[in-house]
Amino acid sequence: MLEVSDTSALVVEPIPETSLDERLVADTWAIGAPAGEAERVRDSVPLWFHTFALSPGVYTPGIARDHRYRLPVLGADRFAGRSVLDVGAFDGFYSFVAETRGARRVVAVDNEQYIDWVAARFGVTLEAGAGFRAIAELTDSQVEYRRMDALDVRELDEQFDVALCFGILHRVTDPVAMLRALADRLSPGGEVVLETYGSRLPEDVPALEVHAPGDVYARDDFVYWGFTPESLRRLGCVVGLEDIEVIDQVEIDGHPRILAVLRSAR
Ligand SMILES: C[S@@+](CC[C@H](N)C(=O)[O-])C[C@H]1O[C@@H](n2cnc3c(N)ncnc32)[C@H](O)[C@@H]1O
């Protein structure tokens, strides 16, 4: 197996240009840092996943393509006064958005698996949590960051009103275990706001698509599943989140995505 620190031997793809659509998402939280400080932070991290609007005209060059379809579930009404868990946070854009929209506590969790696929795809060696820390320091954020697998969130000795689960359910080998772990951390009336890889199968087919390694993104072996609405509904039932609202199904950059909110019906 290749050492991820030895990226010279790896076939890499060019880091994509930040999309204008993702800058629009970033603009929903304008950080407003002094220009020099913004440029220093932007240049301090060799690869960004999220695009942050650091200062007018200064953005981090994020590689995420277009998260505009997520904006409808990210209003202040969802976060104000609530506690939020963000699993698979990466650079933490959604954790920070929850905080700035009034969440009283935010915990960001990531197992830092991205270090491997960023090295394999782009030949970039990332320091764990570098982007998250840079933004947290710049904005004096109180979001708590934990290096942790989402399957282990039971170890967090607290409950959350909202669990954000964006871009990760298709990346875990056991989606039932992950949804169960999140359901277990919810306070009464809590909700999982979920975004994951979708499917082009008919909506009412209760099937998961199984992707071969590198099938979805070349050299990224961690995308296992594609979900239909009915498969999510049944998975929700398995873990006691029977009330599922599918908010949107979209195709982004040739990839189907599904956005849903899962709650307990009790
Ligand atoms: C594609 S990124 C999504 C980042 C962000 N949630 C978003 O949607 O914009 C997936 C993130 O999930 C993390 N991840 C993958 N599997 C995980 C797991 N089992 N536990 C915690 N984090 C995980 C990766 O390290 C990466 O940071």
What's a quick, concise take on this entry?
The protein has 266 residues and is of the alpha/beta class.
Outline the structure in words.
With 266 residues, the chain is of the alpha/beta class. It has one domain: Rossmann fold (3-Layer(aba) Sandwich), CATH 3.40.50.150. The protein contains eight helices and eleven strands. The strands form three sheets. The chain has a seven-stranded mixed sheet, sandwiched between helices. A two-stranded antiparallel ribbon has the order 1-2. Strands 8-9 form a two-stranded antiparallel ribbon. A hairpin with a 2-residue loop joins strand 1 and strand 2 (58-59). The radius of gyration is 18 Å and the shape is globular. Residues 1-9 have low confidence and may be disordered. Bound molecules: S-adenosylmethionine. S-adenosylmethionine binds next to strand 4.
